[in-house]
Amino acid sequence: MANLIDSEAHFQSRALEVGMSDGVRQALRDGGIRTMSHLAFAIGQPNQPLTNDEVGAFLRTLLSREATLQEVALIKRITFEVQTYLVAFFTPRSRAAR
């Protein structure tokens, strides 16, 4: 799983699968969000619900315009996925360290 959360190719592939536009994917790359692990902490933090306002502000910064409802929904979806991956990745390691 470490390869997936830190893979630029996997992040781009997943973004395409969920229907993220080329413009949003490019804006994420330009903003330094190139992997799942980058996105997991770019908005909120794992196990914390995201609001439309938080995601809208994040996208407004990246896109220099208001985000569409679809763009907000897609970012919320993929952010939830990546945060879930990270929690699944780190939970066994934190238990083992105890």
TrEMBL record:
> Where does the source fall among the domains of life?
Eukaryota
Protein known as: Uncharacterized protein
Source organism per entry reads Durusdinium trenchii
